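Task: fold both queries, return C-alpha cells.
Query 1:
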Amino acid sequence: MKKRVVLIVIFAVLLIGGIYVSTFRLTDIQVSGCQVVDEKTIIDAIENTGYSGNTIMLYIGNKLKPIENIPFVAKVEIEFISKNKVSVTVYEKSIAGCTAYMDSYVFFDKDGIILESAPEMIKGVPCIRGLEFESWEKDQKLPIKEDKKFQDILTITQLVEKYKLDIDSIRFTAENQIILMHGDLTIELREGEYLAEQLMNLGSMLKNLNMTEGKLNMKVDNGVVTASFSRK
C-alpha cells in the first residue's frame, strides 16, 4: 500500500511538473553578435534542434549538446530570459581574408586556416587574387606552395585588421609584386620586403591625401616610407 502511494505521489509530481514545463512556450528569440551571419540563419538552426517550442528544453538542450555546424559561427550561447523569451549570443569566427576558388570563395583566419567556403564575397573581407591551388580542406592551411607568399598573405591580412585599413583586394602579380586595391586606388608594395612599415603608414596617407583613384607607389628608403601618387 505504502509503495503504491509513493508511486502515485511520484506520478503526480511528474505530471504537475510536465504541465508546468509545457507552459514555457518560446515566442521571442533575441539574437545578438551577428555581423557576417544572418540572424535568420541562427533562428533556423535553433528551430531545427527540436527544442524550439519550449524555452527550458532549448536552454538545457543547448547546454548538453551545443548548436554546431553553422557556417562562420564558432559558438552559440543561449540565455534564459523568461518563460517565453531567450537571448542568443553568436560568436562568429574571425575572418582575415578570402580567395576565389572555382565558382566560390574560400575564407581563412589570421593564421591561414580555412574556415568555410561561400558562393559570394563578404563585405569588408579583403580578397586575395593571383593564388592558384587544386584543392583545399576545411580546418587546414591554405594550400600555397610558396612559403614567402603564404607568410606575406598572413602579414598583410593581420596588418590590415590591426590598422583598420579599408582594403578590397590583395593581388600577387606574375612577378610576385604585391598590389592592394582601395576602391579605385591601386597601391603598389613591390615585393613586400617592408610590409609592416608600409601598412603602418598607409592609413594616414589615405586619410591625409584624400585619394580615391589613381596609383600610389610605396617605397622604403633607409627605413623611411615614401610614396609617389599619380592619377590614372
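Query 1 returned. Query 2:
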Amino acid sequence: MNENENILIIDDELQIRRLLEITLTASGYNVVHSSNGKEGLIDAATYHPSLILLDLGLPDTDGMNVLKKLREWYNKPIIILSVRNSEEDIIKALDNGANDYLTKPFRSGELLARMRAAIRAGEDKNDIPVLDFGNLNIDTVNHIVKKNKEILKLTSTEFSLLNLLARNQGRVLTHQFILKEVWGYGYIEQTQYLRVFVAQLRKKIEDNPSKPSLLITESGIGYRFGE
C-alpha cells in the first residue's frame, strides 16, 4: 500500500480525474485533484505530493507553463498525461523537467508501473555510494561496476553514461539531455554517437543485449534505465 503517497492530478477533464482517482485510490494512494493550472500550483505547494500527473491542455494556461513553474521549486516526479502525441511535444516536456510522458488514452496498469518507477527515481540517489540493481552494482565513488560480482571493464565515458542513467532510474532522458550531460553542449546533435555507446554498454551489462531490460530505448526520444 501507499498510505503516505499523495498524488496530485492537474487535469480539466472531470471524467479523467474521476477515473484516475478510482484507479489510484484502489492502489492505496491519497489523491488530490485540480481542474486548472492555477489551482494545481496552489495544491502542489499545499499538499506536497509525492508525484504530479499533469495534463498539457488546461483551460487557463498551457500545461508546459505549469511544468516550468513547478520545476522552479518542486523536485519530485511529474508525469505528463496528454492527447498531444507529437515527438516535438514529448521531447519539449521531458527537456522542461517531466519524468515521463503518457499519451491519452492510456492503460491503468502501465500508468501505475510508470508512477512506481518515477517515485523510485525521485528518491535522491546522489548521496548513495553504491547503486544496486539485482546482479548489477554501481560503485559511484570508486567508479567500479560489477555484474554477478565480477568487475566490468568500462571506459570513463561508458561509466559516466551508465551512472547518469542509473541515477535517473525510471525517468526518460532525451538524447540531447544525455549528450549535454556526458559529452557537453558541442555534442547535443550527435545522436548516432550516443547509440554507439549505448550498444557498447548493453553488451557489457545486459543479460541479452538484443532484448535489453536495463537500458530501454524510448523510440525517437531517448533512453530510460529500468529494471
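Both queries returned. Flag for query 2: The mean pLDDT is 90.
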